Amino acid sequence: MFKTNVEQNNVPVFGSFESGQDLPEKRMNKESVDPRIAYQLVKDQLIDEGSARQNLATFCQTYMEPEAEQIMAETMEKNAIDKSEYPQTAKLESSCVNMLADLWNADDSEHYMGTSTVGSSEACMLGGMAMKFRWRNAARENGLDINAKKPNLVISSGYQVCWEKFCVYWDIELREVPMSEDHLSINTDIVMDYVDDYTIGIVGILGITYTGKFDDIKTLNDLVEDYNNTHDNEVVIHVDGASGAMFTPFVDPELEWDFRLPNVVSINTSGHKYGLVYPGVGWILWRDKEYLPEELVFDVSYLGGHMPTMAINFSRSASQIIGQYYNFLRFGYDGYRQIHMRTRDGALQLSQAVAETGLFEIYNDGDNLPIVCYKLKDDANVEWTLYDLADRLQMKGWQVPAYPLPKEMGNTIIQRYVCRGDLGQNMVTAFKNDLSESIEELNNAHILYHDVNTSKTHGFTH
Ligand SMILES: Cc1ncc(COP(=O)(O)O)c(C=O)c1O
User: Fold this and answer.
1) What is the pTM of this model?
2) Pair (130, 41) in one structural domain
3) Inter-residue contact 155 to 167 (CB < 8 Å)
4) Which protein residue has the closest C-alpha to ligand 1 atom 13?
5) pLDDT tens digits, 98-107
6) Do 428 and 346 meet the contact criterion of CB atoms below 8 Å apart?
């Protein structure tokens, strides 16, 4: 435990009394530490975490320009929930909602609603809850016995864990449409077999976390349209666009996946993914207030005004919202498009390099979303695995995950690169060189042992 050593406050950091000891872990130190020394010690403690920009495992933003960092640092103390205290911040938040509504082609004749969240997980919870409450109200009106069965949510088995959490927290049956080698996104041939009167909604994923593949939301919309024409219980679609909803509008604006499709009632995204903001911001919008039951909108009055809120969380810093607005203003539509096109070009170069080795089968080449995903060909005839390749790349500073696909595809091990805006051309070239060197090194390695049945997850947490 630290002891006060006032005389040493002015000595160089590496000569300080505190730097001669381990950092406290189990109990808080009794005496204070000089801020300069505390800063250095904490910074040093984080030294072996790897370089965020070489982390191709995360979807989350790892670079913002200095002016963005500055405005975010200067607004860290603002509490986003204090909308009456910080009305200009609240206004920036609703401007972001307006811009997203425009980007996602909300219909002028409807009354969209939306809010910022901590990330897509909170946004998905809100989207799911809105579907559940709306289903329950409608089911009661239709005379359905709502206690006879658990309500259910239909989604492909490539869902992100937030949907499992949603179903556990809110007591919903998670109905998974299985993936297969032929259907690496939602299988539209069978999805409607999973729907019944107790279905609160179907989730379409614009950017499956595991592979980057897109669900075919347009076909899903048509299927739902047909279903709704012949059933009392109206089924709706929520689009989990955690990554795609801030990418596709700029890069493939013609692709119909959003509010242009009448049965898509809500969309979420992560501002901290292709919205290009540091972690801590997500968004959800409903195409019309009809799809956000009133029970979920709370009136907060004790902060000095009356403000509607629809968040699970309460207090958090507004700086990420301000960072999002900064980006919208700074880049504009064209800027986002240029950044994303460049990122896509980097991803396409990487998938081409992967394909040229002849060893891998590509699942996603980065054209829809800059995610490159592949497996080792069955006849690759190498002694190493994707886990070994991940280790080799890590020796060169790159964090690249290898992991099994979910559920029924659990025997398929894949590797994924998430390309982001800060992966410059020089880094793409460096990665390609490191990849071919790593393969060469593995081909020449002699001591390898593998327990054949081991399928583990290496660096995949998103
Ligand atoms: C499809 C999908 N949904 C939801 C999430 C959760 O997002 P967040 O980290 O913003 O909570 C992710 C994260 O990777 C995702 O890929």
Assistant:
1) 0.94
2) no
3) no
4) 462
5) 999 999 999 9
6) yes
